Amino acid sequence: MELLALLLFIDKLLIESFQPE
Predict the structure, then answer these.
(1) Cα dihedral sign for 6, 11, 17, 19?
(2) Whole-angstrom Cα distance, residue 6 to residue 13?
């Protein structure tokens, strides 16, 4: 299981959520 990849994916979603630019 690539936990790191999952964390990066979630982090990306959070960043996009905060910045819908």
Answers:
(1) negative
(2) 11
pLDDT at residue 1, as a whole number: 67
Q: Which tokens belong to 4?
A: 């790191």
pLDDT tens-digit map of 1-21: 699 999 999 999 999 888 766
- Check residue 19 and give its pLDDT: 79
Token representation of residue 2: 């690539």
| Tokens linked to 11 | 């982090």
Tokens of 15: 């960043």
